[in-house]
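Let us begin with a simple case.
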Amino acid sequence: MHGKIISKAGDYGFIYCAQGVAHYFNRKLLGEGVRFDDLWIGAPVRFEPVAGPKGMQAKQVIHRHVQYGWTAGEFLVLKGDDTIPIQGVEVLLPPNGEGERFLSAWAEFMVPIKGDRDQALNSLIERVKACGANVIDMLKFEYHTIRDGDAKGICEFITGRIACYRTSVEVESDDEYQQLVDDFYLLCNDIHPKIIELQTQLDAENQDFQIRIPYFIGNSFLTLKQGEELYQDKTLLCGVQLASPWYREYDAGKHELVKQAQAAGANCITELTRLEKTFSKGYYKYTMCSWVGYAGVWGGRTQAYAPEESERMDEANKAHCDAVKARLVELQSTLNIRREDKSVTSFVGVIGLVFVVIMVIFAFLAMIS
């Protein structure tokens, strides 16, 4: 009977046979010329099974010469740096141990992810199985920079190798070994052209895949003075010129523009400039400030998408910009009216204040005279 040593301690051990039964053995049950210390866990052995007082025993235990052949293994997906060594089908070397695997037919691939990552991977696996390959190894999800006109964006790809791998199996005879070799050769000769054909299809789909880089709406409010510019990966998607009312306080107009622009849905003000104007009435002169700038929506282009998804995002962004621009135009009219009223109101207020001061002075002089 054939089996393998599954455990060994002290002067005894156990052998597991193909029928799934454990057999006890010790130093006294070994065959001629076999040393107990030369046996190792996992060693293939031949023995005679006998019934012992506590279960099955193995006597006449000797080393068994094992010959390995090759056969295609079960379907595997090996991620990251996990790989199977490459070995040409022309060279059938004996394995270093049972279960050793080699790639015999393989091709690299890079597939863009058009939507959901898991869905893209499952679709790829089905196509690989359909061509007869039994492994995808070195599977990785990688981001690569692509161009859409002047813009650069990031697109996610699945990369790896499609292959047919072989694994070592124990054989009983030279005839069985040769039969496995012949069968594996036929399998590889049939599968390898299909793997190359799938690789060609994936490359063509990769070339035909039109990737676009849509704009996204910025999530932070930017305030840029005159002469300052947006970063290269940002651009103004829409903008309306706004001018604050006139204020005596230096920054009051700027604070109001920012507050009102944010309330209208804008996420930036560019070319922000302070204007000064001198008002006079008779001998009295005073200076007031107003701030002018373009309030709008800024966006950027960094992530690549399939055309359908990109068009959907562009439509949503356009609708958002149109709504913000409409509110900014309305705000522009309101501020322009207030800007005119503010100068008049401020002037009237100043004249009124001067009049009150003069009346207080006259009253004080009348009291002391």
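The second case is a distinct protein. As before, the sequence precedes its structure tokens.
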Amino acid sequence: MAEDAAKKLAVGEGAQMIACAGHSGDFAAMTSDGAWDRTERMTADAPGYRNEVTLASLWNRADFRPAEHLSADSAPSPASPGSLDPTPTTGRVRSASPR
């Protein structure tokens, strides 16, 4: 998938989109148990949210190293305060995010 996106990007083809979240067996970036349901809950109050991502952004994300960009960050990134639960709930993420 990432290789195809890179080839299409290299020849100037338009953005190729896939779903961000889907059900198990779907073609999407996240298809783990509950990914679809969590995405639906977290975006319920975001009418402009579109459940799609470009293949090129997935390719770029795979090569991103946060430590290499620390000096460029002007604001802290939201992070999950949970250490035992790897899946943050919307409430915990919102309460940990700066207002």
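The chain is about 30% helix and 10% strand. The chain has a mean pLDDT of 74.
Keep these points in mind for the review questions at the end of the chapter.
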